[in-house]
């Protein structure tokens, strides 16, 4: 006959084994999930399907359990933004990059009038002249007007991605831009600091119209042309980030309806 002490020890051992099994399963699920996120994030920062590294997405057993629960039951926060202005996206495409007309010695500002508030970007024409020239050209044509910021990442990498007229991650202006300013001293230790404005791409020399706004320091390889800084609207980005993204996994469409009603570049 099994004594009460033996029974208690047996039950404790079985409980411990169940906990170990759950933790092992949590780790397996986390690895599978991070592999899926890694493949998804491999297209997040691409001009058509964005690409970047996701090494900061891991966690311990406790974090894995919490993340699994969040991923399985994503909660959608209320939309903090207004309805988009009347109008539709222009279907524009160009066979070649516009002629370089920007003044490399001048200061350029890009203003994004969005449904969530105004965001102001200081563009660096001296270090990224062809990128700034392209944005000046496209904004002047109304290319960005009424476009939706289609991607928000909230785990390990913290960016809002915009500039795609299709809102699907596949839009381009028809031409490709070279990489610029990849050795910017601000990109230290594989980190794009909060406030950076950089180009999305699908590999070297494939920049188009998609760009991302870094709202929190993010671990990324220096493969994405930094061409400006966020000068106004950081509170707007915080509001968008706080509303979360649709999948609950840290990478998806923003819950906030972020539409660029109007984009303008001024000298």
From TrEMBL:
Residues 1-32, 63-87 are annotated as: Disordered. GO terms for molecular function: peptidyl-prolyl cis-trans isomerase activity. Residues 117-265 form the PPIase cyclophilin-type domain. PROSITE patterns: CSA_PPIASE_2 (PS50072). CDD domains: cyclophilin (cd00317). It comes from the Bacteria. The keyword Ribosomal protein does not apply. Residues 1-24 have a biased composition (Basic and acidic residues). The keyword Isomerase applies. Pfam families: Pro_isomerase. Its EC number is 5.2.1.8. It catalyses: [protein]-peptidylproline (omega=180) = [protein]-peptidylproline (omega=0). PPIases accelerate the folding of proteins. It catalyzes the cis-trans isomerization of proline imidic peptide bonds in oligopeptides. This is Peptidyl-prolyl cis-trans isomerase. It comes from Streptomyces agglomeratus.
């Amino acid at each position: 006959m099994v004594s009460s002490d033996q029974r208690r020890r047996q039950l404790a051992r079985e409980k411990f084994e169940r906990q170990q099994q759950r933790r092992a399963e949590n780790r397996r699920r986390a690895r599978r999930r991070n592999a899926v996120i890694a493949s998804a994030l491999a297209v997040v920062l691409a001009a058509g399907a964005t690409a970047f590294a996701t090494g900061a997405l891991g966690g311990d057993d406790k974090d894995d359990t919490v993340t699994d629960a969040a991923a399985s039951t994503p909660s959608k926060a209320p939309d903090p933004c207004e309805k988009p202005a009347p109008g539709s996206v222009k279907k524009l495409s160009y066979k070649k990059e516009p002629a370089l007309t920007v003044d490399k010695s001048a200061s350029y500002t890009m203003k994004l009038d969005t449904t969530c508030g105004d965001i102001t970007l200081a563009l660096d024409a001296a270090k990224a002249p062809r990128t700034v020239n392209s944005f000046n050209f496209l904004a002047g044509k109304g290319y960005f007007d009424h476009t939706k910021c289609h991607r928000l990442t909230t785990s390990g990498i913290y960016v809002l991605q915009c500039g795609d007229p299709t809102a699907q991650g596949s839009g381009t202006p028809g031409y490709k831009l070279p990489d610029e300013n990849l050795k910017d001293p601000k990109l230290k230790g594989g980190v794009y600091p909060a406030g950076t404005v950089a180009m999305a791409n699908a590999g070297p020399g494939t920049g188009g119209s998609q760009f991302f706004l870094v709202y929190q320091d993010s671990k990324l390889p220096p493969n994405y042309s930094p061409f400006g800084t966020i000068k106004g609207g950081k509170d707007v980005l915080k509001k968008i980030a706080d509303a979360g993204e649709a999948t609950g996994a840290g990478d998806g469409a923003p819950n906030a309806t972020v539409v660029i009603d109007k984009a303008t570049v001024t000298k």
